[in-house]
């Protein structure tokens, strides 16, 4: 039996206040716990998602799990999934009603906050510090769009990513640097190429470090020899793939969504990257075998 809904316009605003409603009233059993496992609380600040991105992610997750949920129930869950200090601010300001909530959130957390943050991080060189390549791609995409999505900003963000991961890109195709400008339409293709090159480099170094009789070199720093020399005897394809799988076991946060659809896309992308790495390593092995002096 479906839960009856009430038209917000037909009742006084006080009847819509979250503070006057039991937190689980009219909600499917376990709904709050389910959504808390799939959607991180809205933090109201970068590098977390913008208000619009977070709300879209939440609505998509609700549709996945509870396609028949009423508007009123969705509203209560939205309030419940805000970070504690933000929820307190909303309630104290008297904006926890369907009539006032949305406008208050847009005014309090405008997208300009994210644009300013990314602009500062980009120019200070801290945009990708300490991030793995998958998280960096998510940040780069969000940053480019929040800064306007123009070719200028797409180019600046991409250059910053290349600079951050240059140590892993010594054997990458020269085409990664051969450009006049990047555009929003080419970002996904470019970031995919950078990701594959970085993972291939990290996997090669991991395979070298774990190969029998080959301990870590005293010259290595963060997995890269300081001399920049190339290994003339690439590790086996199986070693490369095994190292990549180990690297991919680390859970990759997603800025704007953690729903099941995106998880499937990530799994498909990782499978493609493994296949590409197999092909790339086989090419390297063939090239090494064809060098003068090789039997």
TrEMBL record:
Region (Disordered), start-end ranges: 1-31, 208-236, 252-295
Composition skew (Polar residues), residue ranges: 1-27, 284-295
Compositional bias ranges of the Basic and acidic residues kind: 265-283
The name this protein goes by in its record: Uncharacterized protein
